[in-house]
Amino acid sequence: MRTCIGCRGADSRSTLLRVVLGPGEDGQPAVLPDPERARPGRGAWLHPTVSCLDLAVRRRAFGRALHSSTPADHVAVDEWVRSHAQEQHDQHDQNATQRPTGSGFDADEHPMSTQR
Question: What ranges do the domains of the chain cover?
């Protein structure tokens, strides 16, 4: 079990995205995604959703969670993290709309109902 730095909710490792502090494209410190969970350094965990990412940015949680010596204001959130979170959000929405019909809940909302 890990804690999301955005919503502060506990969840399993497989559900959360690990992020680490590393050099960005411009050489400045940036939060980098670590989906393989193999990058060196201290990691933080985040639900791969835009809402949790925005909460973490608003709360300035990256600097604290990653024990960054640079102020949290100077840690740039890598665009890949945002796009990864948006992809996960879009996939979740797409899967929710593709649920099969006729699952037994159609009659009176009870799965064991015989009244069809």
Answer: 2-92
CB 6 within 8 Å of CB 47: yes
Residue 87: pLDDT band (50, 70, 90) is confident
Q: Superfamily for 2-92?
A: YlxR-like (3.30.1230.10)
CA Rg, the chain, in Å? 19
Residue 116's pLDDT band, with cuts at 50, 70 and 90, is low
For Cα atoms 88, 92, 95, give the angle at the middle one, nearest 5 degrees: 135
Cite the DSSP H helix spans in the chain.
Answer: 50-58, 61-65, 79-97
